Every structure is written in C-alpha cells, then in structure tokens.
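Comment thread on ticket #2218

A.B. wrote:
> Attaching the input chain for the structure job we discussed in standup.
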Amino acid sequence: MTVIDVHAHVFPRISREESRVLAGAGEPWLRDGMMMSGEDDYRPVTPELWDAAARLAAMDRSGVRVQAVSSTPLLFGYAAAADRAADWCEMVNDRILAYCAQDPARLLPLCQVPLQDLELASTAVTKAKAAGHRGVHIGNHVGPRNLDDPDIVAFLAHCADEDMPVLVHPWDMLAADRMGRYMLPWLVGMGAETQLGILSLMLSGAFERLPSSLRLCFCHGGGSFAFLLGRADNAWRNRDIVRKDSPRPPSAYTDRFYVDSAVFDPRALRLLIDVMGADRVMLGTDFPFPLGEQEPGSTVRECPGLDDAERAAILGGNAKRFLGLDS
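C.D. wrote:
> Ran it. Output below, let me know if you need it in another format.
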C-alpha cells in the first residue's frame, strides 16, 4: 500500500532581507528554528520544515511514501500589493521546487499564488505547472472575499483548465480579538473558516458554474462542515434566503470536493466518511506541526467499519487520483 499525505507543510529558507519584498505585509522568514513575522517571533519550528533530509527520514519512520508539500500559510502574502505578492510567490515556489528536488518521487510540490489578483494568480499557476508543480495551495479567503468571490471562482476554473488540483487551507482566522489564548484560532477558528469556505461555494451556486473536472480538497477534515451539514440542509429547505442562489441543498455537492482525514478521532472520521464517502477522504497529517497527526494514518487505521479497500483508498488511492498520479 502506498501511503500518501496530501497535507504537509514546508517553510523554505528565506532571509530577513528577502522577506522585505512584502513591504510590511507580514514579512515571514526563518531565524534559528523560529518562524518570524517581521521582527516578531511567530512560532518555533523543527528542521523537517526546511530540511528535506530530515523530512524524508521522518517519512521513513512513519511509513509515509509520498507527501504533497505546500507552503506554511504564513507565507501566502495576500495582504501585500499584488505585484509584490507575485514576486514573492515566484520566489517561494522556486524554493519549494528546490526543496522537493531532493527526492522528486516522494516530495510533490504545490505552488502558491497571489490570489488577490485574478490575472496574476492565473499566470502564476500556468508558470508553476510548467516548472514542475503538481498542484496549487490557497487560503480559504482573501480579506473579506470568500471563495465565492467572482474572481476566485474564475481562478478555480482556470485551475481546472490547467488540470491542477487545489488544496484549500484555513488561515487568518475570524474573531481573533476573542481567541487570544489557548491556540483558539487553531482549535475553533480553523474549523469555522473551512466550513465557511465550503458553504460559500455551495450556497452561492459556484459549484453549479465550476467545471466538474475541478479537483478541490479542504484541509482539516472540512472543519465543522460534516457535523453541521444537517443544519445547512435544514436551513436550505426552510428559508428562501438560504437557497436563493443554490438550486440544490448543500448535501448534493459533497461529490464535488475532497477533504483530508485530519480530525484525530476515529469516531469523527467515521462521520466524515459517512457524509463524504470513502472515495472523497484522503490522508492528511498537517506535518510537521505539533497539532498534526503524530502517527500518520493511525486515525484511518483505527476507524471502525472500513474494509481493506476503503482503508487503502483513504491512505493513498484517493490521493493518487486527486494528484493525477495514476496517469
């Protein structure tokens, strides 16, 4: 069985001087095992995040054969001027390619784009694909613009045209002023942001307009989406302001996207599989962060009611299809 992790992050070596291209918009860089945001310490990190040899050794220990490697969301650069963000994304994408070149059969690079500008983002995807990137990594919103924003929907359609799968990660979480302690933005905000991204595509009718060839995956098990899908369907049936732009209830669109398995509880994963189907869930660990799955695949292996074929699909088979590895 080939085990493939679709949700694994990298923070390539970037100096303080190189970060200044973002001109005050976060300016992320690395200093002695610390992610920095401008002059501020952001989070301590381990060598796997920037050292490919350390990552590959960790993958060997855990039995993960392949990782789709995406940037740490701090690197997105969405708050910067679009032209500066385009230059920044090109540099980050080149660094990710160099990182993954240490073992291109096992480390599959995903690019990032200046999502704040449709034309620049689309150009970046086309260029990144030609350079060797295997997919695209985006945040679930750009400032106040959710995924149903017309330009973001047009960007997703461009990704479908380019045959580039898209991994959506929550970031810049809501209500930060009320969640300053206990990592609550990660524990509460990420789940809410992910559900917001999914429902914005469903209720706006965006899935009706997007090509069915679009391969889209939401991280963190789709956040709170699966648990609250019944509430969303109930609202669609009973309130015209909920269903006014969507001809079908939210549950009708679960075959239009994937989710990863990063829910950390076999009972939660069982519900997620019941909602999405075993063919729409892929292994995701959030490697190498401490809030990620410390024993990759353990939740899948402990999930009740799965047969061998379903378990194999979630641990790797579905990711082969999502990433286009079967071909």
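A.B. wrote:
> Thanks. Noting for the ticket: The first helix runs from residue 16 to 19.
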